[in-house]
Design a protein that fits this description.
The complex is a heterodimer. By secondary structure, chain A is an all-alpha fold. Chain A has 2 helices and no strands. By secondary structure, chain B is mostly helical. The chains are: A mainly alpha, B mainly alpha.
Chain lengths: 164, 342
């Protein structure tokens, strides 16, 4: 057989053999294989995509959490500030109230003292008047008998007075 | 590395000594090299080995169709000397003979069609069965396990499938590549398996046979032109942007171009594989020509070296044939949005 002359038998068998092989392989090998490969590739792609989505969601969630946290922190600071203000105000008010009440008490006490003082003075005056009257009466009684004794008596009374 | 190389050489030489017909080596100068062409060409019988005067051969069926005698079946042993296994016109059988060049002829000179199962046909069937077995067991893996990570035969075939699909089909054909992937895959694996198995000692030079490469090239030619779209044919018969007088030259050139593409495919594979076999056998023949042990050692080393290169060539040629097929198909199905750049 010649090197560069194609043999008819070989062409015949090659043609039908190859077409047969092509048919069998396409039907039973390449189609299922290519389909499986495509399926696997798409499943990998989907898995990657869903992982990406999950990651994005995680990031969103984290950002949201941080936002919430920041808001909460702000809220807390506000509340604390308000509480501080309120307590300050209350202390201030209590102070003012206490001062006012103290002043009132002092005022009242002063008034009472004044009244007591006035009453005491009045009392002293009354007693002095009564004593004077008594002394005068006794003097008047003594005077009638003896001048010297009267004088002694007055002295005596005056002494008594001092003692009192 | 060197040690491995030497061991490999020794192994190859044992195979080659076993397979080289000693009878050729013992004869005249011409006989010492004639086994090269004998190996490279197709044959009506598969000569495996010769021990002294005993030829170990696989007789093959000779099938002939003629309009006057119909379909006839013979055995290759009908046409040869049973002692020497030599073919010749003197061993004619029922009006047919196989001459000393392994050519089937008819005694009365009438025309006939030969459909014999020759050495290369058997080789082709071996390649096909092996390929089918590997591919089907690979596909079976997916059928059984669904779209999971490949194992076994699937692990071997899958990277090739992905390579052919993504690197050859998708890149050369474009968006319509899916339809052609099965053909390209079969083509690539058939040529590759054929090339590799052809390198085995005693194997036939199947992918280095012009009938085989021609059939493959014709299939590519048919697939390319059947799928040719309007732009493709317009490019051939009314090349855009070319003045009408020039078309008289351009159109015949384009038409010739349709045929030179598959012709180049046919010749490239045939020459690359056949040349590789001739080089390897040429180095072996050196040992017989010089009848020297030194040359024998050197040529065995060279044969091992060339064999390793041939492994590369086997893959490259399969890749190139498939790639060019994909590119031709790509040029036939491509959609040209702008014709002005032609």
């Amino acid at each position: 057989m010649d090197l560069i002359t194609p043999g008819s038998g070989l062409i015949f068998w090659q043609l039908f053999g190859f077409l047969g092989l092509l048919f069998i392989l396409i039907k039973f090998a390449w189609k299922p294989m290519l389909a499986a490969l495509e399926e696997r590739e798409s499943s990998i792609e989907n898995a990657l995509k869903s992982a990406e989505i999950a990651r994005n969601e995680m990031a969103n969630l984290k950002a949201e959490n941080e936002k919430l946290l920041a808001e909460a922190r702000l809220e807390r600071d506000n509340i604390l500030k308000k509480a501080q203000e309120a307590s300050n105000k209350m202390i201030e008010e209590a102070k003012t109230e206490a001062q006012k009440q103290g002043a009132q008490l002092i005022e009242n006490a002063k008034a009472v003292i004044e009244t007591e003082k006035k009453a005491a003075l009045a009392d002293v005056k009354n007693q002095v008047a009564a004593l004077t009257l008594e002394v005068t009466e006794k003097l008047l009684k003594k005077n009638l008998s003896d001048d010297a004794s009267q004088k002694a008596l007055v002295d005596e009374f005056v002494k008594d007075l001092k003692l009192n | 590395m060197t040690r491995k190389f030497l061991v490999l050489s020794l192994l190859f030489s044992a195979f080659l000594l076993f397979n080289t017909p000693q009878s050729f080596a013992a004869g005249s100068e011409e006989d010492k090299t004639s086994f090269i062409m004998h190996h490279v060409k197709d044959s009506h019988e598969w000569h495996i080995a010769t021990f002294g005067h005993t030829h170990v051969t696989l007789p093959l069926p000779v099938i002939v169709y003629s309009s006057d005698r119909g379909l006839e079946f013979f055995s290759s042993t009908d046409f040869q000397n049973h002692e020497t296994h030599a073919f010749g016109k003197e061993y004619a059988h029922e009006g047919y003979y196989i001459d000393e060049h392994d050519h089937l002829g008819r005694v009365d000179g009438a025309s006939f069609l030969e459909l014999s199962i020759t050495k290369n046909v058997v080789m082709m069937f071996i390649v096909m069965i092996l390929l089918a077995w590997v591919a089907l067991s690979a596909a079976n893996h997916y059928k059984k396990n669904g779209a999971v990570a490949p194992k076994g035969a699937a692990a071997i075939i899958e990277p090739i499938v992905i390579f052919v699909r993504d690197e050859i089909a998708q890149k050369s054909i474009g968006p319509k590549y899916k339809k052609f992937v099965p053909y390209l895959l079969t083509l690539f694996l058939f040529i590759w398996f054929g090339n590799l198995l052809g390198l085995l000692p005693g194997a036939a030079n199947m992918t280095g046979n012009i009938a085989v490469t021609m059939t493959l090239a014709v299939l590519t030619f048919i697939i390319t032109n059947v799928n040719g779209n309007k732009d493709y044919w317009k490019h051939v018969f009314a090349t855009p942007g070319v003045p009408i007088p020039m078309l008289l030259i351009i159109v015949p050139v384009e038409i010739i171009g349709l045929f030179t593409k598959p012709f180049a495919l046919m010749v490239r594979l045939f020459v690359a594989i056949t040349a590789g076999h001739i080089v390897i056998l040429g180095f072996i023949a050196l040992a017989f020509i010089f009848e020297s042990y030194t040359i024998g050692v050197v040529s065995t080393l060279m044969v091992t070296f060339i064999n390793i290169i041939e492994l590369l060539v086997a893959t490259i040629q399969a890749y190139v044939f498939t790639l060019f097929t994909a590119m031709y198909i790509g040029s036939a199905v491509a959609e040209h949005a702008h014709d002005d750049h032609h």
